[in-house]
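User: Show me a protein chain along with its predicted structure.
Assistant: Here is one chain, sequence first, then C-alpha cells.
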Amino acid sequence: MSVTVDGDKTSSVPGRVRRILSGPPPEKVPSLIGTACTLIGLVDIAAGVFPRFRTSRIHALAEVLPGTLGPLSAAVSLSAGVLLLLLAHGLKRHKRRAWRAVVLLLPLGAVAQFVWRHSILGSLLSLGLLALLLRHRDQFAALPDPRSRWRALANFVVMGAGSLALGLVVVSAHPRRVVGDPSLTDRLEHVLLGLFGVEGPVAYTHGVDWTVGYSLGALGMLTALTTLYLALRPEHPAARLTDEDETRLRALLDRHGSRDSLGHFALRHDKGVVFSPSGKAAVCYRVVSGVMLASGDPIGDVEAWPGAIERFMDEARAHSWTPAVMGCSETGGQVWTRETGLDALELGDEAVIDVDAFSLSGRAMRNVRQMVKRIERNGYTTRVRRVRDLDPAELDLVRRAAADWRGTDTERGFSMALGRIGAPGDGDAVIATAHLADPENGTSTEDSPYGDLKAMIHFVPWGTDGMSLELMRRDRTADPGMNELLIVAALQASPTLGIRRVSLNFAMFRSTLARGERIGAGPVLRLWRGLLLFLSRWFQIESLYKFNAKFQPRWEPRFVVYRAGRDLPRIGLAAMQAEGFLTLSLPRPFARRPARTPRPCAHVIPQRTGREHEIRTAEAA
C-alpha cells in the first residue's frame, strides 16, 4: 500500500514541475498581470511620496520591481505608479491598448533599472514580465469601449481631483523640512501652482523643494497628457438603433411579438442590436460601465435565439464586456443558461391581468372599487384610445404634459420603458387620459396649460391581443387615485380594442415579500424581507408590490442572467445607471431645469423598475 502511494507521489512531481515551468494558464494571465501592476503602482506612489518609505527595508526589496527607479527621481516613481494604476484595469479587461502601453513601458523600465540602479535583477524582472505579455498577447485582444469627447472632460475632472489630493499628500509628507507653519490654504495654493510648474508659497530645506516641485509637475503633466490624448483620439460613439435595425425588429415583432410583453421596448433608440445569422432573432442591449446589458427575451423565433445569443456573447468577448440580461422570462432564462453557461437568479415578478377575468366586484377589489367611485363622483372622466386616433394637437398636448409632469430631472427607463409617445410606427399603442369634467368639484382648469387633462397612462403593444404598461404621469394638483382610475378604465375598454391581456408593473423580490409576511416564515426569510422593507425607503419595493396586488394579477417570474456571483454588484450598478436611478454623468451647469411643483407628502410614489412611472397610491379610507 505504501509503495503505491509513494509511487503516486513521485510520479506527480514531474507533472508539477512542468506546470510551474509552463507558467500560469493563459486565461489567468491578464488578471495576474493587472494585479501585479496595481501592487507595483501602489509601491511606486509610496516610494515617490513618503521619504521614510524610500529608506525602509520594504523599499530596498521593491526597488527591483519594474517601474521603481529608486532615489533617481521621486517624480518619475510617482508618475510611473499612477500610469500603472491606470493601465491595470485595462489589462484585467484584456484591452489591447493597455497591453500595447505596458509593452512599451516595460523595456524603458528595464533600461532604467540597469543604467541608473545597476540592478540586473530588476531588469530581468521587467524583461520577464514583458516576455509573459508577448507570449500571451492573444489574451489581450479586446476592442476599445464606445467613447465620446465627454471622456476627456471626465478624465480631466477625475485626474485633476486625484492629482490635487495626492499633491496635498506630497506637500504634507515632509513636516521636518518645511519652513515655518504654512496653513491648509497655503498648501492648497502650493499644490495648484505646482501642478502648472510654478513655485508656490511653501518653502522647504535640504533640497526637498525640488522633489516636491518635480512630483507636482509630473502629476500635472499626466493630467494634461491623458486629457489631451482622450480629446484628440478618434471618437467611437455608443451603439444606436438605426432605421434599418428598427425596420427589421418591427418585422420580427409582427410575427413573434405575442411571446414577450417586453418585446416592444427593444425599439428604444438608445439600444444596440445583434441579429442571428439567419436574421430570425435578435438581442438588444446597451453598454453601461463595461456591462453589456440586455433586457427581456431575445426578439424573434425561439429556434433562432441561440444564434442571436451567440452573436451577443461574441460581441461581449470582443470588447471584454461583462454579459448580463435583466428581466428575461423563465423560458428565456433557460435558453440563456443552456447556450452560454451563465447562471440565472429570480429578480421579481411581472403583474399580468387577464382582461376576461377582471372584475371590480368582490371583497378583494373593494379598495380599488371605492377609490374609483370616489374619483368619478368628483367629476373625473376617462378616455381610452389608440394613439393613432388622437389628432395632432391633442397628441402634442399629451407629449408636453408628460414631459412637464415627469417626477425627476432624469428620464428613467431601459428595460420597460419606450421613452416616447406617438412616434411613427407606434400607432397601435394605447393611451388612457383622465379629464376633470366639472371644475367646481376640483381644481380649476383655467390656470392649467393643459386644459382639463389631469393624468395619462401609456401602453405599448404586446403582440396583437395585449398591451404592456409603459408610462404613468399626472398633474400634481389632481386627486389621488388617478392611476387606479386609469388602469381600471383601460382594462374595461380593452375588449373593444381587441386586448385580452395587460402587463402592469414589475415588482422586484415579490415572492420574498409575500412569503416573508406569512405565518411560519423562517428567520432567514424574515431577515431578507426586513432588509427589503428598509431599502423600500429609497427604492419603493414594497409599495410597488402592494399597488400591483390591488388588481389581483397573476405573477410571471422574471430573472437576471449573469456570469459569476462576483459580477452581480457591478451588474446591479449598471442596471441602476441604465434605468436612471443612479446618474454618474457629468453635470450640465448651463442646462435649464424647469420648476417643479412640490409633491404632497401624503402619497407613496412607487416607480416601476425601468420606467418613469409615478404611481400615486393614497390609502383609501
